[in-house]
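ok new one. same drill as before - structure tokens go in, u give me an amino acid for every spot. 68 of them this time. try not to just spam alanines like last time pls lmao
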């Protein structure tokens, strides 16, 4: 399963099949990545640059950025 979350001129893409559940996203930017919420990714809660930086810390590649 793959989901996309739109923010300005990007999409945050989450590929559940790649997720290693390291928790890096939640620890690094909990205002955006909250596994107890639905949806668990809320891109409105941080600026685009912070989100891009945090997505880059995903060790499994489950999170990625797609530019429009």
């Amino acid at each position: 399963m793959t989901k996309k979350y739109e923010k300005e001129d990007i999409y945050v893409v989450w590929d559940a099949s790649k997720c290693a559940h390291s928790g890096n996203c939640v620890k690094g930017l909990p205002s955006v990545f909250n596994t107890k919420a639905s949806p668990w990714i809320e891109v409105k809660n941080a600026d685009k640059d912070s989100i891009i930086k945090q997505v880059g810390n995903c060790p499994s590649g489950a999170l990625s950025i797609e530019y429009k």
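The chain has one domain: 2-67. and btw Helices lie at 24-28, 48-55.
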